[in-house]
Amino acid sequence: MTSSDLWTEEQAQGYDDQGWDMFSPERIDPVVDFLAGLAGEGAALEFASGTGRIAVPLRRKGIPVSGIELSQPMTDRLRAKISEDELPVVTGDMATAVVPGEFVLVYLVFNTIGNLRTQAEQVRCFRNAARHLQPGGAFVVEVFVPPLRRLPPGQVAVPFEVSEGHTGFDTLDPVTQQGTSHHFHRRPDGTYRYGDHNFRYVWPSELDLMAQLAGMSLVRRTEDWVGTPFTGDSERHVSVWRNTSAQTTWSEPAPR
């Protein structure tokens, strides 16, 4: 049993049409280029592959990609874009599900580590990544830094986007590290569709300890996919850990 929210058929149908820039080339291309550089000639595995926002363009860049996805309706949307033979997906929990084969790269993007809403499950997720990695392989996580500095006493919500098409804010519990993302998407007729998503936020240092428990070590942490240095003011990070059972040496992604 997993603590993750299970995306429904209705949520999956509207996922690719949310009216914000997560599907823009400016958002997707740097991610795909970075991951492709890490994968090289090897295979990649995406945890929480969803509708294929990253997996499909990465596969079309020539990288063999597999996925693990909890929601069958989300995978059904993926199947409208690419076949099972081209991009196989195992339906299951990313903390425990097993995919045949061995990978040079396992990755989790767009805050999806938080889909696992207990610390124990997040630890198991790191161990599951290590289980799938070949010696020297890399595990990549993109996730926000908990914005508690923007949460003054008495305030429970932090906005993360306010635009014409989408307004979103997180409600956060500093005691339990539980949060809920609230989304208001503007329809063409001017009305709004509401959706929410529950998560557990996690600190960079906490992730590093999870990696150690799984036999991995941190080799790179930046603010974004293009290498902006990570600082105390960074609101998110892209972190890379290496499977330290390896004798091979990790190197920076090659330009593609």
From TrEMBL:
GO biological process entries: methylation
Organism listed in the record: Kineosporia succinea
Pfam families given in the database record: Methyltransf_25 (PF13649)
Methyltransferase domain ranges (all copies): 45-137
Protein name: SAM-dependent methyltransferase
Molecular function terms from GO: methyltransferase activity
Keyword Phosphoprotein: no
Keywords, in A-Z order: Methyltransferase, Transferase
InterPro entries: Methyltransf_25, SAM-dependent_MTases_sf
Top-level taxon: Bacteria
SUPFAM superfamilies, per the entry: S-adenosyl-L-methionine-dependent methyltransferases (SSF53335)
Gene3D superfamilies: Vaccinia Virus protein VP39
